[in-house]
Amino acid sequence: MSGENHNGGETGGVVALARHGIQHDHSPLVRKILRFARHARENGFPLGIEEALDALHFADQSGILDRDALRWGLRTLFCSSPEDWERFDDLYDSYWTYGGERTILKVSGALPRPGGGDTVPSAEQLGLGGNLAEADETAGGASARERLEGTDFRHLDSERDLQAVHDLAERLARRMRWRLSRRRRVRARGRTIDLRNTIHKSLRHGGTPLELAYRRRHPRPLKLVVILDASGSMSLYSTFFIRFIRSIIESFAQADAFVFHTRLVHLSAALREKDIERAVERMAVMSAGWGGGTRIGESLTTFNRHHAKSVINSRTVVMIVSDGYDTGPPEVLAAQVKKLRGRAKRVVWLNPMIGWRGYQPVAKGMAAALPHVDLFAPAHNLESLAKLAPYLERL
Amino acid sequence: MDWRDLQAKLAGTGYISDPDLAMAIAMTERLQRPILIEGEAGVGKTDVAKALTEILGTELIRLQCYEGLDANAAVYEWNYQRQLLAIKIWEEEKLSADEKEEHVFQEKFLLKRPLLDAISRETPPVLLIDEIDRADEEFEAFLLEVLSDYQISIPEMGTVKAVSIPHVVLTSNSTRELSDALRRRCLYHWLDYPSEEKEQAIVKARVPDAEARLAGQIVRFVQALRREDLEKKPGIAETLDWARALVGIGAARIDEDLDETRETMMCLLKTRADREQIAPEVFERLVAKAV
Predict the structure, then answer these.
(1) CA dihedral B102, B108, B110, B114 (to 10 degrees)
(2) What global pTM score does this model have?
């Protein structure tokens, strides 16, 4: 919001007030409440003029009020989620108690500028920082195929190649969705009689239900939740997968994504970013680890405890994309994957390394998790991803 | 209604509320907007509606949400049996199909489900929409329409406008993200587990047979138990169950007979994993801290 808008907002507010019959448009409290509403809005609270008006009505009618009561009232009006609720008191204190309007938490559009924060790694550093690129060159099967779809993502380097792969990924994601929705339509031929329409139709025949109307089953789309490993050992793949996830999120009605390295991060906000470059960069920044090894088991524990309840339902396919190199104890990972499988419809583990010649899932964590996974599949190139579509379709 | 009065009246019905909740309810009354109460299971969200009903001396209409809840179950449904009978009866009469149609789609053939019922009362009832997060998104969109305009359109009959605007309380365990539109339509309150003092007051009000010393131990134990790593944390209802159980077996203190007290833990720990989590030594540590 620009400086002019600030003033415009306040004047606009006062005009609207007059229209709603609130007289004392110059009372300090009214102005202070209006300014607080604006302050809260700038800090990501979903407020419009309506909420501000309600706040004034409330202050007006209660004939103010001790400090606590004002706080409770505004909190009830301005909050609309547990997250808001948690942040409100700090925001309120900073404004009313300390009189400042300093921004506590900037939630929306808070992308660190690439040049601005020098401690924040860029997408390139994270994704293509290639410390493994040379080391694993031979293990990866030297013969990169001609067709882009068959090319291991590690071997794509030029900007043009990457672009082409992303286009393909997007097309693939769209195709997956199309197949899934077609399947839904076929299955939707319900066999329950719709009495309301049957009666409508029967009137034509003097009340004899000659034509029966059927009620269709409401289509229940699959939900897809992707949990992506963005650790160093996966870094060659993570930029690609972040883009792939984004295409999936865009084309599935219900999808969600998380990234972990040493800790788990929910990606949904970043995924809503319209500009793809920005989105990718933002996700890369969010998933940046702070040293230490990959904690898959721990990240899944966090997921199961805090997110699973709200993100997973019985029609959810959970897709874990990871090489399974866990620095934590393998029992933890196994237990968490098992728990996850209990909640979700299917747990699919995509491991880019399966595509490598001679790969065996010997990583301890991987081996421990394997018995609890419904499908263990390669995901090192587009061809392998394309093979997933028929599997998902059968569910 | 002033929030202080409201808080006192709520307490009069046995519902002990924090002042901020009383304030929130007072505001929903004043602004005639629904209130969305979120919080963990067992913190007393549903009881808010019940207590409010008692205070207002009106009726409670409850809509329990579940996955797959549709307009037929929540708003209205035509009474098909009666319609079919009516058509049979009119068979002899020389009425056109259009006329018959008009006859069978009248209010007397309509079965009112909670939402339609709630807006067609003379005295506004309390409408409790329980666990809205369990219903599907489509239903949520539908509900939003009803809660914004307080009218329901029935294709065969036209629009039914609210006779009175009900007091609407929505609850959610946040198992699913609710739409921003619905959230914004409602006033909001996050209900947390009660503080020690508040829970003491609740036990005193609801299980008057529990003596002060026992009640204090019970509450301190449960409060500490909630800080353990459990799948299902005990709610207020569990505390009250446990208090009743202990009073029932005639315990005067929770450390009187540890084995017996441990037997009653089933009131608080409802899953096997949680029972395993609270091993005997953990249990004894918690008891020792509570007494």
Answers:
(1) 150
(2) 0.64
